[in-house]
Amino acid sequence: MKLHAGKFAEIRRLVAEGTLDTGDPDLRDFIQEQHPADIGAFLSDLTQEAAWQLLGLLPLPVRAAVFGYLSPTAQAEIARKTRRGELADIVSEMNADERADLFNKLDQRQQQALLPALSQAEREDIRRLAGHEENTAGAIMTSEYATLRPGLTVRQAFERLRLQAPDKETIYRAYVVDDHRHLLGSVRLQELILADPEQPVEDLMDRNTLAVQVTDSNEYVARMIRRYDVLALPVVDADHRIVGIVTHDDALDVLERAATEDFQKVGTVVPMEESLRDAGIGLLYRKRIPWLVVLVFGNLLSGAGIAYYEDTIASYVALVFFLPLLIASGGNAGSQSATLMVRSLATGDVVLRDWSRMLGREVLIAVLLGLTMALAISGIGLYRGGLEIAQVVALTMVLVVMIGSTIGMSLPFLLSRVGLDPATASAPLITSIADAAGVFIYFAIATAVLFPVAGPGG
Amino acid sequence: MKLHAGKFAEIRRLVAEGTLDTGDPDLRDFIQEQHPADIGAFLSDLTQEAAWQLLGLLPLPVRAAVFGYLSPTAQAEIARKTRRGELADIVSEMNADERADLFNKLDQRQQQALLPALSQAEREDIRRLAGHEENTAGAIMTSEYATLRPGLTVRQAFERLRLQAPDKETIYRAYVVDDHRHLLGSVRLQELILADPEQPVEDLMDRNTLAVQVTDSNEYVARMIRRYDVLALPVVDADHRIVGIVTHDDALDVLERAATEDFQKVGTVVPMEESLRDAGIGLLYRKRIPWLVVLVFGNLLSGAGIAYYEDTIASYVALVFFLPLLIASGGNAGSQSATLMVRSLATGDVVLRDWSRMLGREVLIAVLLGLTMALAISGIGLYRGGLEIAQVVALTMVLVVMIGSTIGMSLPFLLSRVGLDPATASAPLITSIADAAGVFIYFAIATAVLFPVAGPGG
């Protein structure tokens, strides 16, 4: 299967010109040959009407698969404009977890309109899956898993799986449950294939099956799937009854999403689910302005520091030459520490109790970094300001790098400790704090060195 | 299965005290009950000797699994101190891809010592897998996949898979190949289970099987696995012969690793594979100092700007109060744009040809952001400096935010365009550029407004 970018571009052009002939058998053949993920990506760029027209060229199961690849917003918008019966056909064919997501995106009136058009089993399934809080295991799990009773033989188990297979997302691991759906263990299809057909499932099953709670965070579940290299994890309720599974592809999506959110946070953007490419001006403005305004007022502190030392500056205007450089250096070293720490806390590489040990190391590294940077700049300090200014600049450099690094490293820990998101310790926030600290350190040292006894002129 | 943090902590204490009794049957039972991933994480914190002692308590297949969960560095270090026969036993039991990774970590002498202790098939397998360039599909693929001939019936295919199953990483999709291992298609185990036992595999197989080239980047392969929600992708050579598969768990690792590297880059840290928790001072120093020194010299430009306008500053020292705030604002807005763009380019949400369209939107957003921030600060400008200074500050704010945003948004595109890594457009780099631009803009406007005709005093 290849990506036919050229052919897709041609269709896009025809749609834009309003000359697409949906009756064209070549078009139909081309579309039907593409992977649902590729069709979904292509349709996301078109108008809803055009997307809906092209969807109509596909057989129902493919149409449902493609629909599942559209963004939840696009799904809901198309759903709004579709006749109830047609929508119900698609919804019935969708994966159980995607169906529940779509249901959650519809408003109450639409939900009430859709439900009667579905089968009893589908309605119950949606109710079971759609009621969970966002960002929990419950919200990403699917009900399409295979179950077996412990008393079955391997031969009987195979027969059961044959019956369950067509509408289960994965039967590669079957979950063994008692009469009340309590999770007893699990057995891999691979093991069933190799086993004696008359052996009971009970003897074969892994009783130590990992499971997560329905209320666990989706990121926790994804990290478990990554840690244990499993295809899926069963989700249980408070009584250890199985209620769903989370599959490896959900884990991938959750971790990619979580990384994107952390990028947004360290970039001082309020996390947004929307694609950056398609986000509107209003949305981006709302996501970006809060931190920018907070930081404007944060940076007033640096201005206040400068105002406080106005006399020193007036006497030695040369000092201002080194000001941007010195305060930026503290912020830069701090940004490094903060960014490293935010990511390591997110992946679980670093945990809260590592803080004190890492702080010691950070101070040592910061001294080395500060000394190197002081060395790099002292020649210019000497050339532009003479020995005294060079000393002031070098000493300030070591101190601001130390302070910046320590704050940058500790703030994510601190935030995490008090239950806030460590990713709030963004580079610009650390830079603002380090800037203000840098101004005071710089001019305090300058005043002390340049006016040793009586202040300016002394 | 539960994480027994308490018991693990106790063992760690006993190891530290040197009083661990490895003959204790309770210890043996406890260790053997844990998941290999958990044992691996626990052993990574211990000394090599202690780790090796505890590994000895495990049956060989578990020992190999645990060994596979250690970091490649820890594996190589333990391998160095282990007798050749013992090492060969473990290596034989390891997954083919992990085995090849370990082999690549050993020096040539160790490699030559290990090879004769392995079987002919294992040696060939290692040679086939270990020779690929880093960060390619070849470097992460495994040779443990199941193949079928097109002429087999479903019944015969099952018999073949039964024979192949014990040492294949996944048999949930079998690849159909001709006599020369050319990839013809694939068939899912689920489909085989449902099919008529006498049907030929040929009629059942999916001829449109997605495949990647052995030289494709590992991140590309991982994104394909994510895009198409597949368990594994076959890897083919230039002649379309199958040479391996990449599995979903590798995709997870590759994408997590890629996100971590991008975090390091936007934090101006040279990417490092090592865990931040365990990284040494020397390593962290080397990874952090290059950009810090580059930025020190970059920030000299801001200093030069200030020196150039020394007369203006000397006449209006009040201007310096607003300097940190104004230049920081350009950098902050630019950091937002750059961080959003770096991530979107990495995930494929945004592609190169989106640039011109997004630039227009960015300018509009920047004007809105700049106006809001100018409004926020103009009261203080009025209060501290009077009407003229307030006008200078407000006008500068709008301009620096526009320039910072435009640079922050465009630089990742530009870098990507010329084949460099967009993540090089880090927040501190954008901040440095925006700082320098901000200094010149601020004082140029101030000079023009405050000394309208003849310069200072005019």
Taken in chain order, the helices and strands of chain A follow as HHHHHHHHHHHEHEEHHEHEEHHHHHH
Q: What's the number of helices of chain A? A: 21
CATH architectural arrangement of the largest domain in chain A:
Orthogonal Bundle
Distance between the termini of chain A: 82 Å
In terms of structural class, how would the helical and strand content of chain A be classed?
Answer: mainly alpha
Q: What is the CATH H-level superfamily of the largest domain in chain A?
A: SLC41 divalent cation transporters, integral membrane domain
Sheet of most strands of chain A: 3 strands, mixed
Q: Work out the helicity level of chain A.
A: 55-70%
Overall form of chain A: elongated
- Record the strand order, biggest sheet of chain A: 1-2-3
Mean pLDDT of chain A: 88
Taken together, the total number of domains of chain A comes to: 3
Question: CATH first level of the largest domain in chain A: which class?
Answer: Mainly Alpha
Which two chains share the most extensive interface? A-B, 109 and 109 residues
What is the CATH topology assignment of the largest domain in chain A?
Answer: Tetracycline Repressor, domain 2
* Number of strand segments of chain A: 6
